[in-house]
Design brief:
A seven-stranded parallel beta sheet has the order 4-3-2-1-5-6-7, sandwiched between helices. The chain has a single domain, classed as Rossmann fold, CATH 3.40.50. By secondary structure, it is an alpha/beta fold. The protein contains eleven helices and seven strands. The longest helix is centred in the middle third of the chain and has 25 residues. Helix content is about 40%, strand content about 10%.
């Protein structure tokens, strides 16, 4: 209960508790008798989808506001990328090689969080999908710096449980991908994308589309691993075909290391810089 918003009416918590101590009769066992807000079956009806969408938007928003989270740095990346110490267990040689980006994500999150701690730890808080791989690396780096990280998990058939490094009171679980992606971007001051699969590509292109179309303000947008991304996406072919403009190639930069990424973020206001440029290189 929010102690700062008292009112003279009986609180819903009280009635929910009282409803567990009523006589056991045919009437009180009926689903119709359940309090609507405490009735899971009712809340899962198709007609209640708009309410569930609103709840998934409101719950993390309210809790992050209460925690004082002002801004975030987003880390997208593959759940299957192992930490270097476990790269021998990777299913492919490519995944084993990409384990280097686990360490870069970890170092980047640690450096960002250390810098944020000087401002009270409420700015540029690391946010990931909360799962394994690159997501774990981001949460881990933040924890090693003594800071918080946000985890936005989603219920999937085979994965994923939250990684052990996410700040527990900032670890959320979602049913709707769309609302989850909104929360990734609502406080974003930079977006960092590490190698990954379909989920990472989905997050990458939705975020780029929002920026390209002016639905979101332009923020530093970094792709870790130029060789990987240029193999996966023929960016120049899109521009040559005219399906995107040449200027759209300037919406993002390629970086390789945590230090590269921090330098690009710090110098992001520079105009006319060709995509892929790394300061000092």
């Amino acid at each position: 209960m929010n102690e700062h918003r008292r009112h003279p009416f009986r609180h819903s918590h009280q009635d929910r508790e009282a409803a567990t101590h009523i006589p056991d009769t045919a009437q009180t066992r009926s689903p119709a008798y359940r309090l609507a807000f405490a009735d899971d079956d009712f809340l899962c009806r198709d007609e209640l989808r708009p309410v569930r969408l609103q709840l998934e938007l409101l719950k993390p928003e309210l809790m992050m506001n209460e925690a004082g989270i002002n801004s975030t740095i987003v880390l997208f990346g593959g759940a299957r990328i192992p930490e270097p110490a476990k790269k021998d267990t990777a299913r492919t040689k490519t995944l084993a090689d990409l384990s280097a980006y686990y360490e870069e994500a970890r170092r980047f999150a640690r450096l960002v969080t250390e810098k944020g701690q000087a401002n009270g730890g409420l700015e540029n808080v690391i946010v990931t999908g909360g799962g394994p791989g690159v997501m774990e690396a981001g949460s881990r780096g933040a924890a090693e710096a003594g800071g918080k990280s946000i985890g936005l998990n989603i219920v999937l058939p085979h994965e994923q449980a939250p990684n052990e490094y996410v700040t527990p009171e900032l670890c959320f679980n979602f049913h709707y991908f769309a609302i989850r992606k909104m929360h990734f971007l609502m406080r974003a001051k930079a977006i960092c994308v590490f190698p990954g699969g379909f989920g990472t590509l989905d997050e990458l292109f939705e975020s780029l589309t929002l920026i390209q179309t002016g639905r979101m303000e332009r923020v530093p947008f970094l792709l870790f691993g130029r060789a990987f991304w240029e193999k996966i996406v023929n960016w120049d072919a899109l521009a040559d075909a005219g399906t995107i403009s040449d200027e759209d190639l300037n919406l993002f930069r390629f970086v390789e290391t945590a230090e590269d990424a921090l330098a690009v973020i710090d110098s992001w206001e520079g105009k006319g810089e060709r995509r892929g440029a790394i300061p000092g290189r």
